TrEMBL record:
Taxonomic lineage from the root: Bacteria, Bacillati, Cyanobacteriota, Cyanophyceae, Coleofasciculales
Membership in a protein family: Belongs to the EF-Ts family.
One MF annotation (Gene Ontology) recorded for this entry: translation elongation factor activity
Its biological purpose: Associates with the EF-Tu.GDP complex and induces the exchange of GDP to GTP. It remains bound to the aminoacyl-tRNA.EF-Tu.GTP complex up to the GTP hydrolysis stage on the ribosome.
Annotated GO CC locations: cytoplasm
Compartments it resides in: Cytoplasm
The protein's name: Elongation factor Ts
Superkingdom of origin organism: Bacteria
Cited Pfam families: EF-Ts_N, EF_TS
Length: 218
């Protein structure tokens, strides 16, 4: 049996917002494994973030982040329940950090996996099913491999499933839940928009060798 230290209990409490005794019990049941303890709390419906997730969050702020050099810009809307919490430094720091996360993850297109349209999911499945390395495998094995690959691919498109850029041990979803536990309100990342300088503009491609030859001949 792993030793359940006060530091471990405190860490789990900060991540989930659950009570001290619940955190200790979760760690005991999970033999000190933090990930399993968090799953145990979620299954029991104990975490404060899970309890608050059904409450209406219609306040909040739209934040922005412009990357150094002005070549990438992000707008993000994050909602909470009250204007009071929206003005809190902790909430505004969360908005800024999520906007920075979006800027740092150019492949991310959706807030969460559930937001990904079914046609995109089907397209990914068709691509995976047609890969050469699956050709000779039995159909049931192929399905399992494809499902695993698709789940991984969809998470790559989901903001909430990304490792947090400032602490790779947690995801963006876990970062938001920490803020829920700290501020005591339901907090939801609603949407984001990323702007990349020059994106979509057809740039004229010049042939440097031809330019030099033309100049020498003139």
């Amino acid at each position: 049996m792993a030793e359940i230290t006060a530091k471990l209990v405190k860490e789990l409490r900060e991540k989930t917002g659950a009570g001290m005794m619940d955190c200790k019990k979760a760690l005991v049941e999970s033999d000190g494994d933090m990930t399993k303890a968090m799953e145990w709390l979620r299954k029991k419906g104990i975490t404060s973030a899970e309890k608050k997730s059904g409450r209406v969050a219609a306040e909040g702020i739209i934040g922005s982040y412009i990357h150094t050099g002005g070549r990438v810009g992000v707008l993000v809307e994050i909602n909470c329940e009250t204007d009071f919490v929206a003005r809190r430094d902790e909430f505004q720091a969360l908005v800024k950090n999520v906007a920075m996360q979006v800027a740092a993850c150019p492949n991310v297109e959706y807030v969460k996996v559930d937001d990904i349209p079914q046609e995109i999911v089907q397209k990914e499945k068709d691509i995976e099913m047609g890969r050469d390395d699956l050709g000779k495998k039995p159909e049931n094995i192929k399905e399992k491999i494809v499902q695993g690959r698709i789940e991984k691919r969809l998470k790559e498109l989901s903001l909430m499933d990304q490792p947090y850029i400032r602490d790779q041990s947690i995801t963006v979803e876990e970062l938001v839940k920490q803020c829920v536990a700290q501020l005591g309100e339901n907090i939801q990342v609603r949407r984001f928009t990323r702007y990349v300088l020059g994106e979509g503009i057809e740039k004229e491609e010049s042939n440097f060798a031809e330019e030099v030859a033309a100049q020498m001949g003139s």
